[in-house]
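User: Please predict structures.

Assistant: First:
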Amino acid sequence: MNYEELKEFVYSAPFDVMTEVYRNGDDVLSIFRPTKLSKRFKNYDINKNFQIFLKENDNEFKPNHFRIFIDLKFRVMDYPKRRNLLLKSFDNIFYGMDPIEAVKPIKKYKFKNCLNDINTIAQLAQLFLLEQCEGYSKKSKYDPASLYMQGWIRYFLHEPSTMDFLVKRVSYQNAAPPVKYTKKDDKNHKEFELKVKPLWYL
């Protein structure tokens, strides 16, 4: 599904039941739309809020953004020459492409170190991008709001720093990705461009 198709699918899913979004072997991605929210999420709109679940074999849990960042960093460590290919594929997901189509150029490479199959990671990334744009209650400094995550994806794939340094940086409270990875896609930034060239931040 492209971004708009996924958005329609998610917000037409029933409340209070687990809805499968994607299945890839033993990996299953699902969403859950609760009608009752905890006090922590009391300001969230129940019509826009959804939770993401990943099931690996018999283990089901809520993944977070670090799974995407770390998986992609492992891949670029395995294949440094495929850095730009990974960047372009995940940029295409950000720009709305079907994630399975976006990562087809990557499928032929056998990565030694990764957390999940590339299709699962791509589909999960698309779900997180949708969640950031639609599901969060707070106003984002970015337009689109998904640039927060996309900026970090670009940072993890492009920066040569160690995994330790990258994780530490993104873990800082209220940390934002370097503006060099977001400014031309951000409608709130003075350097925003309606049409940018691929990998404009390199």
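Second:
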Amino acid sequence: MNFADHVNLSDWHGQCLLTVDDFELHDFLDDLFTEQGHEAQIVHPSGSPTQYQLLFAPGISRATVYRLLCEVGPGEIDRIVRIKSRASTNPGGGA
């Protein structure tokens, strides 16, 4: 299930798997879920260097992860991704 352009929720052997296509977004979401008491295992999919995944414990449902993503909102997710893309297109740091 796509939550936003850069975020997908799926089921992996009965566990919630969150896949994102941006490292900064992955880091932000990992911190967010950890702060909420929902630590996840970081998964590095083979053959896909542009995907970052968090695998949640069996007791953490997709509904729980979806609810927390809704608190962040698609707009904030897009903003985080845009920050990285602006930094990579402007390596000198000027505006």
